[in-house]
Amino acid sequence: MPASPDELRELVEEYLEDLGLSPELGQLAAVARYALDGGGKRIRPLLCLATGEAVGVEPRSLLPAAAALELVHTFSLVHDDLPALDDDAFRRGRPSVHAEFGEATAILAGDALLAEAFRLALTYSSPQVARELAQATLGMIGGQYIDVRGETGDVLALHRLKTGRLFAACIGCALWVAEVPQADQAGWRRFGDQVGLLFQVVDDLLDGDGYAREHGPEQARALADTTAERAAALLDTFPADTSILAAIVSTLSTRVS
Amino acid sequence: MPASPDELRELVEEYLEDLGLSPELGQLAAVARYALDGGGKRIRPLLCLATGEAVGVEPRSLLPAAAALELVHTFSLVHDDLPALDDDAFRRGRPSVHAEFGEATAILAGDALLAEAFRLALTYSSPQVARELAQATLGMIGGQYIDVRGETGDVLALHRLKTGRLFAACIGCALWVAEVPQADQAGWRRFGDQVGLLFQVVDDLLDGDGYAREHGPEQARALADTTAERAAALLDTFPADTSILAAIVSTLSTRVS
Closest approach of chain B CAs to the CA of A137, in angstroms? Predict the structure, then answer.
């Protein structure tokens, strides 16, 4: 009987709460902690744990990888919020890191979160989890750069990098910890791509920007529905109990915040 | 017959010049490249290669680790130069990255350099090199935060973090690639600490700041000399040909730029 999404999310929250950041960060650790405690949906670590359950990995053994994915996501938010980038003074109803602690501190806290993410990913004996994380982070940064330059010619290509690469890595990290051979990963990785696209298109719908602004809300809703169906269809092809992942896909498709 | 420091530096320069950055970075790769091509002394990769030679590792096999160390150093310069931190418009006689490309691009280019550093460090089959890099990077960021806050109560403690941790990692990465057991690494790591201190105190002397401003140039010179002697004495205790490292220590002690 697999754990429910809520049980998995609880595991993630507990792990993040107890997570010891490097003592050498000194006072900066408290700033990184502020960023991490912002009450995010933890959708990335949840996906990682749920994929692990489907492929037969004890969720607890995935927690360092799951946390590393959340730290990379948090790093990207801290830097994206900076005045030189999106200039957001608020994040989830609280002052953003630079608004609360100043710009220099926010830059360094983002750097620290990224380095801590690799430290966590490197607690595994194999380097595969950290490699997956490095590649995804580079794709995400490349996407962020396209966004900053306003080169939004192909909004789906932008989403594939900026959001999709890290979502796909949530699946990928679980596969590596489960020691699923690379030759057997393709279907799972297509599933990761679909989930990333689903998340971002629904985000665009809720915010009225990106794909929804470019193609209208009806076409965005249609794309979200098709993508959710594709993701669910892929889940049915895996010889595994994917019920928790199916529930997550359904929640992502119908979420209203 | 070990290679000379100049031959090793030439190897590093060629490797960095040919280094392919991730295609997903798009145009940002050219910015990271600008930062990397700034004509630094390449002292960190040089130390890594020279240590490798002493412990019997072919320099070429150390090039990814050596480059990763230089990329972490370059990432730190790009972020340190930002207006919110040191606000330096010039670096080695050229416009700094934010002065040339804008602040948002400089933040993302620094992020990209850090992620690329891990990608390189993760090309080894063992995760030890990347772990060494992650720990050193966290220490360096912690040091930078102390510096930003102006908490310069103990300038040597600051140097140990901000400069020393990455210098020590240059030695550490070479030891891991050479598969030197952790139990046999202590002496080498003390050498790394001394070299880091030597580099920074001479830097302070040349710039008239840090330890030289706090304790005067004579005391700084005396500390540099003692540190160089300690480093040389440690080299003599290793059952290895450390002539190249001794030459590097001597150069670091007497450098005038």
Answer: 7
pLDDT in tens, B16-47: 999 999 999 999 999 999 999 987 899 999 99
| CATH number of the structural domain B5-254 | 1.10.600.10
Residues of chain A with Cβ-Cβ distance to B139 below 8 Å are 22, 24
Whole-angstrom CA distances from A2 to A10, A119, A134, A179 are 14, 29, 30, 20
Contacts of A147 in chain B (CB under 8 A): none
Q: Establish, for the pair of chains A and B, how many residue pairs have beta carbons separated by less than 8 Å.
A: 144
Residue B1 has pLDDT above 60, yes or no: no
Q: Which pTM was predicted?
A: 0.97
B220-253 pLDDT per residue, tens: 999 999 999 999 999 999 999 999 999 999 999 9
Q: Which residue from A minimizes the CA distance to B84?
A: A104
Give the pairing type, strands B94-95 and B90-91.
antiparallel
Give the whole-angstrom CA distance, residue A97 versus residue B146.
Answer: 18
Where is A90: in which H helix or E strand? Answer: strand A90-91
- Domains of chain B by residue range: 5-254
Q: Quick one: closest CA in A to B78, which residue?
A: A107
With CA atoms as reference, the chain A residue closest to B72 would be A115
Tallying the residues shown for chain A, one arrives at 257
